[in-house]
Each structure stands twice: as structure tokens, then as C-alpha cells.
Amino acid sequence: SRLSSHLLIHKGERPHKCPTCSRSFTEKGDLKKHMPIHLEERPFKCPSCSHGFNQKAALKRHMILHQQK
């Protein structure tokens, strides 16, 4: 349940472990979001410098750097 999952945060338990880098997460969804980091594919390209990212959120964070210049 969502309450059980939430309580893991307070207990410090992270039962969902990445098989590639051993990073762990309290929720399965967070592990699922993490997994593309290990893929070669980088479909989200920065229009300013063509740097590629595997997550849209990472591209958005990167683009802020261009706006600050």
C-alpha cells in the first residue's frame, strides 16, 4: 500500500536495488526511472549544444545552464 511504501522512507529502508550500480530506492517507480541511466541510448538532445540525455528531466536541468549564460 502507499502508506507502507511511505513508511519505508522514515525507516530508511530501500528494498528496490539497481542490479547495475547497487543504488537503492524506497519505491519501485524510482528504480524504474533510474534504470535508463545505464543505457547507451540518449534520445533527449539539447538544441543548443547537442548533448544527449536519457531522461527528459535531465535535459531540462541542463538547458537551465544555457539560459543562465
From TrEMBL:
Mainly resides where? Answer: nucleus
A Gene Ontology cellular component where this protein is annotated is: nucleus
Alphabetic keyword roster? DNA-binding, Metal-binding, Nucleus, Repeat, Zinc, Zinc-finger
| Gene Ontology molecular function: any one | zinc ion binding
Which residue ranges does the record assign to the C2H2-type domain? 16-43, 44-69
Task: List locations, semicolon-separated.
Answer: Nucleus
Signal peptide coordinates: none
Query: Which superkingdom is the protein from?
Result: Eukaryota
Q: Which InterPro entries match?
A: Snail/Krueppel_Znf, Znf_C2H2_sf, Znf_C2H2_type
Q: Which family does it belong to?
A: Belongs to the krueppel C2H2-type zinc-finger protein family. Belongs to the snail C2H2-type zinc-finger protein family.
Protein known as: Putative transcriptional repressor salm ovary overexpressed
Q: Which organism is it from?
A: Rhipicephalus microplus
